[in-house]
Amino acid sequence: MSYADFLADEPLIVTxxxxxGVHGKEANPNVPETPAEIxxxxxxxxxxxxxxxxxxxxxxxxxxxxxxxxxxxxxxxIRDRADDLLLQHSTGGTGAPTEVRAQPLRTDPAxxxxxxxxxxxxxxxxxxxxxxxxxxxxxxxxxxDRGIKPExxxxxxxxxxxxxGLLERRDLADPVHATLIFGPGTLTRPRPAxxxxxxxxxxxxxxxxxxxxxxxxxxxxTMGILFGGHVRVGLEDNVYYEAGELATSxxxxxxxxxxxxxxxxxxxxxxxxxxxxLGL
Amino acid sequence: MLAPTxxxxxxxxxxxxxxxxxxxxxETARAYCTVAEQFVQPMRADIxxxxxxxxHASHCEIYRAHEEGQE
Lengths: 280, 71
Description:
The complex is a heterodimer of chains A (about 280) and B (about 70).
Chain A: H1 3-7, E1 14-17, H2 35-48, E2 52-55, E3 57-58, E4 64-65, H3 68-81, E5 86-89, H4 98-101, E6 113-117, E7 121-123, E8 127-129, H5 133-146, E9 149-154, H6 157-169, E10 177-182, H7 192-200, E11 207-212, H8 217-226, E12 230-233, E13 240-242, E14 245-246, H9 250-264, H10 271-278
Parallel strand pairs in A: 1-2, 1-12, 2-5, 5-6, 6-9, 9-10, 10-11, 11-12
Antiparallel strand pairs in A: 3-4, 7-8, 13-14
Helix pairs in contact in A: 2-3, 2-9, 8-9
Chain B: E1 15-21, E2 24-33, E3 38-39, H1 42-48, H2 56-59, H3 61-70
Antiparallel strand pairs in B: 1-2, 2-3
């Protein structure tokens, strides 16, 4: 994907990452945590332009849950309110064994998409989220068995190599869909040159999301829009609307990036168009 | 400091579950670090609880720094 795709008016897929599994209401009281809250947030994001929702589940006290039942409850709440949204379950899970991380793949029906973290990243000062190749392959194989499209999460340039490696080990359906992640720590350093380099090195024909953490969310989303990619925004990745001002909702962040796309002349994809672009 | 309102199984001795602190109130008691004196991130709570492969003595810099300061 490239600037030519932008000029060709390729519709923009907006993914809303509604809640995440790292921070919660202690960081921003507007982060949705219960299935009902996530369902309402998803519907509001759909109203403002999102076609995909990236989902994590939580226990009633906000802590991480990987339970199939909890994801099922979230999916049911969303489908009651916005039944055309594409649901993307997270399989991320620092410190959790692979079998636990596979539980979100086992809802009925299965989600159309699921995230696949492509390699290690540091957390805090003494912890690494490992994401070994064996874990990647095991999660991918269960996705393939269940007809779930993987969204390859590329936290840094080394993970682009890992994506190419997965393509050598497994036969992924076209197009490969990846998320390029920019921010602090183990993430790709958020600089425009690194964005351009990353999109040059993606597998042939891959579609990509652009994800900037924190204050980088909007600038990198804008670059994604201009270079024919897609965007992910939401309270999982950024709890602020601007410096010192907490975002009031996921929909607020979706609405802002949709406004930028419209100002730049890039049409925003409906869920049906998103399915067509992603080959679902 | 407000009194704890509820306790779960506590693995890190500095973990508490509170519904309110420092003007913040939650409907369900949440993980609170009595060393950092703040509610902790949900993922960090899994470290406090030694869930899965996580271990507060190995993975929590707050616990480790506090223990070193006690020696």
